[in-house]
From TrEMBL:
<dbReference type="GO" id="GO:0019867">
    <property type="term" value="C:outer membrane"/>
</dbReference>
<dbReference type="GO" id="GO:2001070">
    <property type="term" value="F:starch binding"/>
</dbReference>
<feature type="domain" description="SusE outer membrane protein">
    <location>
        <begin position="25"/>
        <end position="127"/>
    </location>
</feature>
<dbReference type="InterPro" id="IPR025970">
    <property type="entry name" value="SusE"/>
</dbReference>
<dbReference type="Pfam" id="PF14292">
    <property type="entry name" value="SusE"/>
</dbReference>
<protein>
    <recommendedName>
        <fullName>SusE outer membrane protein domain-containing protein</fullName>
    </recommendedName>
</protein>
């Protein structure tokens, strides 16, 4: 019996060792590739791609060597200068990444996406900015496996293209504004009221996709509201046809979009959150609580390019909204800072906080509004 048990143990151990060997064989070691080649299309040297008359440009490459037949994700990147400089705190990247992805070594570069990248990189704002002549655009592939693991760029190639002007701007989110008895130092309804001194915008909902044509969608505001102080939510400060208030009497139990509505008002002072959906034409308001009280900053500075300005806090109890009037002379990067914390974003002239990002600003005169509690900013053109 002992001999049988010993023999059985040996067989089990052998099977386990074999299984371990099989596991090692099926889990190869990943090696980090150092290069991979994007091929120049056979007819690229003598051909000009009319981006308005074609759907895709076929690109092929040799797959990066990860040490095994990995599933590789590819995206196309475009640069007008072939410099391939990354974004810094003071300048945008010299290239853009096209949205479409491929898991094949044959990648179809979408011509509409490529054209949009060219228009943005060239800074065209009208049809008059492009003379219609063929021009060069440089493309390369960005490859990775899994969740952006082991990323690598290919070499770049030059393509001759005829692009076309297209409007690449989306509608600015059509926010509504809060104004009332407890906001600012200028009475609401006064002809001199302005952003910051009498009203401020509701905040964007982080991660929400607004309607590109109308700017409609969801907006929010969380703040301290004192008791028995009336206020309204309006589309255009100074105009009262499109306004939110309470039906029949002052309060917040029956909020309606009606020019004859009464003031919104609370009986108990405290923190409240308003949520507005302009697609569904619905406004809600409810009391909110915090585990710890929000930090109230003594100062917030807006840094834009080589300039900076100390922002002014909107006058109201427990205010977290700031504003400043500035002139931006040339395109630059911007961010907000309290000294202890810094906020930036990826979109201009409006946006939500994105960790590590800086805001790419365009020249102009602006009233800048920043809500550090909702972490939202607006560069409101004057």
């Amino acid at each position: 019996m002992k001999k049988i048990n010993i023999l059985t143990s040996i067989l089990v151990a052998t099977a386990l060792l074999t299984a371990c060997e099989d596991d090692r064989d099926s889990n190869p070691t990943i090696q980090e590739p150092t290069t991979f080649v994007l091929n120049t299309p056979a007819n690229a040297t003598y051909n000009v791609y009319d981006l308005n008359q074609s759907k895709n440009i076929e690109l092929t490459c040799t797959q990066p060597d990860y040490g095994y037949p990995a599933v590789v994700t590819y995206t196309v990147q475009a640069d007008l200068t072939d410099k391939w400089t990354d974004e810094t705190e003071t300048a945008d990247a010299s290239y853009l990444t096209l949205p479409s992805i491929s898991t094949s070594a044959k990648v179809d570069a979408n011509t509409q996406e490529l054209n949009k990248a060219i228009v943005k990189l060239a800074g065209w704002t009208s049809e008059n900015d492009y003379d219609g002549e063929p021009m060069s655009v440089f493309v390369r592939l960005y490859a990775h496996i899994g969740d952006k693991g082991y990323p690598i760029h290919s070499n770049s190639i030059e393509l001759k293209v005829i692009p076309y002007y297209m409007d690449i701007s989306d509608a600015v989110p059509a926010t509504y504004y809060l104004l009332g008895d407890f906001i600012g130092e200028v009475p609401w309804g006064n002809p001199t009221m302005a952003a910051g001194t009498a009203y401020f915008p509701m905040s964007l909902v982080k991660g929400y996709a607004y309607d590109a044509n109308t700017g409609k969608g969801e907006f929010t505001y969380t703040g301290y509201i004192p008791a028995d102080k009336g206020f309204k939510v309006v589309a255009t400060p100074g105009a009262w046809d499109d306004q939110w208030g309470n039906a029949d009497s002052e309060g917040f139990t029956n909020l309606v979009n009606d020019k004859n509505s009464q003031n919104i008002k609370v009986n108990a002072a405290g923190w409240y959150t308003l949520h507005l959906n302009t697609l569904e034409n619905k406004l809600t308001m409810k009391a909110t609580t915090f585990e710890t009280q929000p930090t109230e900053y003594d100062a917030v500075t807006l840094i834009y390019g080589s300039e900076s300005v100390n922002m002014t806090k909107v006058t109201m109890e427990h205010s977290h909204v700031w504003y400043a009037d500035i002139t931006i002379a040339a395109s630059c990067k911007a961010k907000f800072t309290s000294g202890d914390k810094t906020w930036g974003g990826e979109v201009f002239p409006f946006g939500s906080f994105v960790d590590g990002a800086t805001i790419s600003c365009k020249p102009g005169d602006y009233t800048v509004l920043f809500n550090e509690l909702d972490e939202c900013y607006y560069f409101k053109a004057k």
